[in-house]
Amino acid sequence: MVQGQKVFEALQWASSFLVEHQRDANAGEILLRHYLQMSRSQLFANQQLVLPEQVQKDFYKAVRMHAGGVPIQHIMGYEEFYGREFIVNQDVLIPRPETEELIVEAITRTKRMFPDQKDLKMVDIGTGSGIIAITMKLECPYLFTSAIDISGSALEIAKKNAARYKADISFIQGDLLIPIIKAKEKVDIILSNPPYIPNRDIEVLSDVVKDHEPHQALFGGFDGLDYYRRLMEQIPEVIREKALIGFEIGMGQGEQVAEILRKSFPQSVIEIVNDINGKDRMVFCEI
Ligand code: GLN
C-alpha cells in the first residue's frame, strides 16, 4: 500500500481489486464514503484529496475484508433503509432495497383502507433488525406496533434501532404469531418478510450471504414457502374483520403465495406486486 494516496487513486485500486475477486466494484466507493464521512457528491468533489493515514489504512483493510466475502454492512456496522441507518450484525438479515418497496406499498394501502387512523394495530413478523416495524411506526406514528422474532439476539439489535429513532414498539420473542394468539390480541395490519429462499438454493447463493447472514432468516424450507403456509394457519385467529396482510416474497413465488392466501380468504382482494426490476416481490391481501 502506497501511503498518501488521493481519493481517486484509492477508488481505482479498490474497484480493480474487488473486480479481481469477483465482488461488486462499487463497494469501494461506499466504504470510502463511510471512512471519510462524506456524501456521494462530497466524495466526487474531493477526488484530489490526500487520504489521512488512518482512513487509508482502514479503507484498505475493509476492501480486503470485503474481497474475502465479508458484507460491507458488517464492516461498517449499519445499512441504510428508507433514508435511515439501521445497525446490523451477523444475527440479523441485512436490509434489502426490495423491502423499501414493501413499505411504500404498505403505507399506501394503510392510508387508503384505514383513513380515520383510529386504534390501529400492526404486527411485523420476523422483524430481524426491526426495519419494517420501525419504519412503519415512524412513517405512520398512529399505528400501535408490535414486532416478533424467534431470535433473542435479533431482537436486541431491533431494540437498539428502535431506541435510536425513538420508535415506540412492543418487541416480543416468539414463533410467528403464537404470542399474539396466546395474548388473544387482534390486529389490523400484518406485515412480514419471512425467510423465503428454497433450501436447495444454498448452492447458488453468494458466499457473502451464505457465510455471513443467519440461515434462520434466509431459508424457508423445500420450496421456500413454509413460513407463508404456517402463517396462514395462524392469521385467521388474530385479525380483525377488516385487515391488511402484506408479504415480501421471492421472485417467482407470487402465484403460489396468492393461492395460499386465497384458500383462507376467498372473499379478499389479493394482489401480486412487482418490484422496480419487474420481479414479483410482494403479495397483498385486503380482507
Ligand atoms: N424483517 C426483516 C427484514 O425485512 C428481517 C427479515 C428476515 O429475517 N427474513 O429485513
UniProtKB/TrEMBL annotation:
Domain Methyltransferase small: 114-201
Family annotation (PROSITE patterns): N6_MTASE
EC top class named in words: transferase
NCBIfam families in UniProt: hemK_fam (TIGR00536), RF_mod_PrmC (TIGR03534)
GO biological process, one term: methylation
Family: Belongs to the protein N5-glutamine methyltransferase family. PrmC subfamily.
Keywords noted in UniProt: Methyltransferase, S-adenosyl-L-methionine, Transferase
Classification lineage: Bacteria, Bacillati, Bacillota, Bacilli, Bacillales
Protein name per UniProt: Release factor glutamine methyltransferase
Annotated residues for binding of substrate: 193-196
Superkingdom of origin: Bacteria
Cited function: Methylates the class 1 translation termination release factors RF1/PrfA and RF2/PrfB on the glutamine residue of the universally conserved GGQ motif.
Pfam families registered for this protein in UniProt: MTS (PF05175), PrmC_N (PF17827)
Domain Release factor glutamine methyltransferase N-terminal: 9-77
Organism of origin: Heyndrickxia oleronia
